[in-house]
């Protein structure tokens, strides 16, 4: 009995290597097993029938080129004294075991902080300690455990694959046309008139079919072989069985002198299969949902030009532009620091929450979040919006996609198993009725009953809904947010900056008349904050004020309380009365921001709440949900809020960020599915704990990593329509499912009853996918126009 390697399951030739009762084909597989065993990662072998990959025989010098800084930097996305983040292409990733091993690689190498695997792209984002681990050593480690990184150009590789695919399609198309031409007498029923010519054209068809079988169709065979090797089923298994059966029957007919058999059907079959594959690949590329939502994603930045500040989209940034970043804002591109000092939080990039102090002239990577006073930067590279949206997507990355993929794999397995059983029974039935029809009938069954249409319906429906919502001002992190939106039972609103706007007409200053110098200082300190009230103060004071704004130092912002900073020798405090003067509010019926200079009260800004346009109509159309309002302000606006919300709405004032978080946790503990809508600053905890968190974006965009979506403030009134658009995806999916089931039922019936040829089945296979894409896209787009 042939023995198999415990790690990679390859045959053991010769004596092999033994550890305890486990045998290995080579020393490399034994070494990987020992590494896993010593680090308590034995579960790796329970996740898949054949989880391991044989490590290559690489030597210590294979990756020495990565010791050259200029080469290594091409693969580094972030680097500081304690952390390096790289994105590596690992083409040998193939199953859940690979994901498990790679995401637990820190147990093998403690200097690796984290590893996130993108299974579909076969990429891994790895953070490690550069003091004790180099990129070359990391690559060597990955190589040793069977995941050798590919440092070539992915785009070039994709271009090569595209060319090869088109060559295969061309070979199949040429063969299909030629064989049909030579088989023309067969179609006219005159095959017996020219026996010699018939035999000649038959052998000619056989000759030209060889490259179709061994070249054009080889990917189906390879994929099916790998699937069976890992004791699983994929769609290429029945397709390969059909190809082999049809081709074998045709070859037998030709060699037996019975004519060309089904060789024309075989060539056409492969040709149309490849066309279907080409269409599917092109459709996925044209509807690349990651690219689509990033293109609608509202990322803005403040640029300083000719002494004036202007808000622009990040695509408009050019090299050497000067940009201004405020507290809690994310730096959108690689740049140099112009200000004397800045505190940068790179947790958005690395997961490490310890801020880093940068000095004037230091290089700053995109994705860092500024902490403290407003700082000035010089752009080094044009901004990459997709990079920022990917960072946003990775913040709360979970295993839902892997679990979803696992469920889909199980469904596909049982679907294909059932298809093979149906084919077997059909073959038995036709064996007794007319055995000459067995091959074409079985091939037609295997091809026409395709789960492709079913598999395409979900990603295309959710992807199209996501694009429609983006056009209407609601930008989702990913398509899974739509599924969560469809389960919502309760909606919780923040008040300030969410239900109310920052209109200048609603602001009043009470206190001593501000001197131009004090006005400059207040603007400078407030302008470092992204809080809605701070933004309103800046707009109010800058109206008709052209003086330059000084720098601030020692900036501190306490969430929900206020800000403190030094400006031109004075210490300013801006915030609640308790924060500014250490006293509790004496007037409970106003929203006020107090200002002190060097401990002396200057005055206060009173904000008269102005509800955003359309909010009353919005709340009246949310009758299917339980509504809640949580505000950190006093209850002065209680009557106003009650006037725009239904009577059963739960309204609570004096809510701290912690209170909001606990309130949502309590709702979830009661089995509620909660949608939280807030400004993304004081509400970050609540947004993060909600089932769906939507951050409201005003004039300056601010990333809120804990949110699942971002909505433009002036589009908030559309919330009922946006939720209905998300719910409509259920109808679209049901329609696509019904179509797929009807298609498979009718197709199987026609195939089993010998009313469909393999060629027709091959043509219908891509048509079914096209139909589902058309139905999904059409229904979503028509609904989106309403």
Nutshell version of this structure?
The chain is of the alpha+beta class. Helix content is 46%, strand content 17%.
Low-pLDDT segments, ≥5 res? 287-298, 395-408
Q: What would the CATH topology of the largest domain be?
A: Rossmann fold
- Residue fraction in strands: 15-25%
The first-level CATH class of the largest domain is given as Alpha Beta
What is the typical, i.e. mean, pLDDT?
Answer: 77
Number of domains: 5
- Count helical runs: 26
Based on the structure given, which CATH architecture of the largest domain is correct?
Answer: 3-Layer(aba) Sandwich
Helix content range: 40-55%
- Nearest-angstrom radius of gyration? 32 Å
Distance between the termini: 68 Å
3D structure, described in words:
The structure is a single chain. The radius of gyration is 32 Å and the shape is elongated. Residues 287-298 and 395-408 have low confidence and may be disordered. It is 46% helix and 17% strand. The protein is α+β, with helices and mostly antiparallel strands. α11 (289-296) crosses α13 (385-394), α11 packs parallel to α16 (452-471) and α16 (452-471) runs antiparallel to α25 (719-752). The protein folds into 5 domains: 37-152, Alpha-Beta Plaits (2-Layer Sandwich), CATH 3.30.70; 155-286; 300-386, Calcium-transporting ATPase, cytoplasmic transduction domain A (Distorted Sandwich); 473-499 and 611-723, HAD superfamily/HAD-like (Rossmann fold, 3-Layer(aba) Sandwich); 504-607, Calcium-transporting ATPase, cytoplasmic domain N, CATH 3.40.1110.10. The strands form 6 sheets. Strands 16-28-27-26-17-24-25 form a 7-stranded mixed beta sheet, sandwiched between helices. A 6-stranded antiparallel beta sheet has the order 8-7-9-15-10-13, with no helix packed on it. 41% of the residues are buried.
């Amino acid at each position: 009995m042939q023995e198999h390697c415990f790690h990679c399951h390859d045959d053991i030739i010769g004596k092999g290597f033994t550890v305890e009762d486990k045998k290995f084909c080579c020393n490399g597989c034994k070494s990987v097993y020992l590494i896993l065993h010593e680090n308590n990662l034995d579960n790796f072998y329970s996740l898949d029938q054949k989880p391991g990959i044989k490590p290559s025989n690489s030597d210590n010098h294979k990756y020495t080129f990565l010791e050259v800084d200029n080469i290594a930097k091409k693969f580094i996305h972030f680097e500081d004294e304690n952390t390096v983040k790289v994105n590596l292409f690992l083409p040998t990733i193939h199953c859940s075991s690979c994901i498990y091993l790679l995401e637990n690689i820190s147990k093998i190498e403690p200097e690796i902080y984290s590893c996130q695997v993108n299974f579909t792209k076969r990429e891994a984002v790895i953070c490690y300690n550069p003091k004790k681990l180099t990129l070359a050593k990391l690559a060597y480690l990955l190589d040793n455990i069977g995941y050798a990184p590919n440092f070539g150009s992915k785009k070039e590789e994709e271009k090569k694959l595209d060319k090869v695919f088109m060559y295969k399609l061309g070979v199949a198309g040429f063969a299909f046309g030629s064989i049909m031409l030579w088989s023309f007498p067969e179609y006219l029923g005159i095959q017996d008139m020219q026996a010699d010519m018939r035999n000649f054209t038959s052998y000619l068809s056989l000759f030209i079919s060889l490259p179709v079988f061994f070249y054009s169709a080889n990917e189906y065979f390879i994929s099916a072989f790998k699937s069976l090797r890992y004791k699983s089923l994929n769609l290429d298994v029945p397709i390969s069985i059909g190809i082999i059966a049809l081709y074998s029957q045709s070859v037998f007919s030709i060699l037996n002198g019975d004519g060309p058999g089904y060789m024309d059907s075989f060539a056409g079959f492969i040709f149309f299969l490849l066309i279907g594959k080409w269409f599917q690949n092109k459709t996925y590329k044209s509807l690349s949902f990651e690219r689509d939502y990033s293109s609608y994603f509202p990322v803005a930045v403040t640029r300083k030009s000719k002494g004036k500040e202007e808000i622009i989209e990040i695509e408009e940034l050019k090299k050497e532009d000067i940009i201004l970043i405020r507290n809690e804002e994310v730096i959108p591109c690689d740049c140099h620091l112009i200000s004397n000092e800045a505190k940068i939080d790179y947790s958005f990039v690395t997961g490490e929450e310890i801020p880093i102090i940068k000095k004037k002239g230091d290089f700053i990577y995109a994705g860092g979040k500024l902490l403290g006073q407003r700082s000035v930067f010089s752009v080094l590279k044009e901004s990459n919006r997709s990079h920022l949206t990917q960072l946003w997507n990775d913040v709360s990355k979970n295993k839902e996609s892997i679990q979803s993929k696992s469920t889909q794999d199980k469904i596909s397995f049982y679907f294909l198993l059932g298809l093979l059983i149906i084919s077997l029974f059909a073959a038995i039935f036709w064996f007794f009725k007319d055995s000459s029809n067995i091959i074409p009938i079985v091939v037609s069954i295997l091809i026409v009953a395709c789960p492709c249409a079913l598999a395409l319906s979900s990603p295309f429906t959710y992807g199209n809904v996501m694009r429609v919502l983006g056009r209407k001002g609601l930008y989702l992190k990913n398509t899974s947010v739509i599924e969560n939106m469809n389960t919502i039972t309760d909606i919780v609103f923040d008040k300030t900056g969410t239900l109310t706007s920052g209109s200048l007409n609603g602001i009043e200053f009470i206190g001593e008349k501000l001197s131009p110098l004090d006005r400059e200082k207040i603007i400078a300190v407030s302008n470092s904050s992204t809080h809605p009230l701070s933004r309103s103060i800046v707009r109010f004071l800058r109206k008709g004020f052209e003086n330059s704004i000084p720098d601030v130092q020692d900036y501190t912002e306490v969430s929900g309380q206020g800000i403190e900073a030094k400006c031109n020798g004075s210490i300013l405090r801006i915030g609640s009365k308790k924060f500014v003067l250490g006293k509790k509010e004496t007037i409970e019926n106003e929203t006020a921001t107090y200002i002190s200079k060097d401990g002396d009260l200057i005055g206060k800004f009173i904000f008269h709440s102005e509800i955003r346009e359309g909010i009353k109509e919005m709340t009246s159309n949310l009758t299917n949900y339980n509504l809640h309002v949580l505000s950190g302000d006093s209850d002065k606006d209680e009557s106003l809020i009650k006037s725009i919300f239904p009577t059963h709405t739960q309204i609570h004032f004096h809510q701290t960020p912690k209170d909001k978080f606990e309130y949502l946790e309590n709702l979830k503990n009661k089995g509620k599915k909660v949608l939280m809508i807030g400004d993304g600053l004081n509400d970050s905890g609540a947004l993060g704990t909600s089932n769906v968190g939507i951050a409201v974006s005003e004039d300056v965009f601010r990333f809120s990593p804990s949110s699942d979506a971002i909505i433009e403030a002036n589009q908030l009134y559309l919330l009922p329509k946006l939720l209905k658009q998300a719910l409509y995806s259920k109808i679209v999916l049901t329609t696509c499912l019904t179509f797929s089931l009807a298609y498979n039922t009718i197709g199987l019936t026609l195939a089993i009853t010998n009313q469909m040829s393999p060629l027709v089945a091959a043509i219908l296979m891509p048509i079914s996918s096209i139909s589902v894409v058309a139905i999904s896209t059409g229904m979503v787009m028509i609904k989106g126009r309403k």
